[in-house]
Design goal:
The chain is built from three helices and six strands. By secondary structure, the chain is α+β, with helices and mostly antiparallel strands.
C-alpha cells in the first residue's frame, strides 16, 4: 500500500461513524478525499501530509489557531479562513472536530438566508 493510500485509509477509518449518518457521503475536493453533507463539503484528507482538514466557522478556526490546536489550511499559499488542518495522531481530537464540522455544515444548511 502506498503512503498516500495509507493516509486516505486512515481518513476513511476516522470518517466511518459519520458516513452512517443521513446525508453524509464520500466525495473528492481539489483531488482530496472528502466528506459532504447533502453536497456541502465539511471535511477532507490532505493526502500529502495525512492531516485531517475540517470546515468550521472562521471565528472557531481563528480560536483553534490561536490556541495552537490546529494549523492553517493554505493550499498553494492561500489560506482558507474557514478550514483548519489537524494532525490525525489524536483520534479523540479528530473525532471531536469531525463531529463539530458536521454540525457546522448542518447549521449552515438550516440557517436563514440573508436577503441582501
Amino acid at each position: 500500500m502506498t503512503d498516500a493510500k495509507a493516509k486516505q485509509r486512515r481518513f476513511w477509518l476516522l470518517a466511518e461513524p459519520l458516513l452512517q449518518q443521513a446525508g453524509v457521503s464520500r466525495s473528492t475536493m481539489m483531488g482530496f478525499p472528502c466528506l459532504r453533507l447533502e453536497g456541502d463539503f465539511f471535511a477532507c484528507c490532505d493526502v500529502h501530509t495525512g492531516s485531517l482538514v475540517v470546515k468550521l466557522s472562521e471565528a472557531r478556526v481563528s480560536a483553534l489557531l490561536e490556541a495552537g490546536a490546529v494549523q492553517a489550511f493554505a493550499p498553494n499559499g492561500r489560506r482558507f479562513r474557514a478550514w483548519a488542518l489537524v494532525s490525525t495522531e489524536d483520534e479523540g481530537v479528530c473525532s471531536a472536530l469531525l463531529d463539530e464540522a458536521l454540525q457546522h455544515a448542518a447549521d449552515r444548511r438550516t440557517a436563514p438566508v440573508d436577503p441582501k
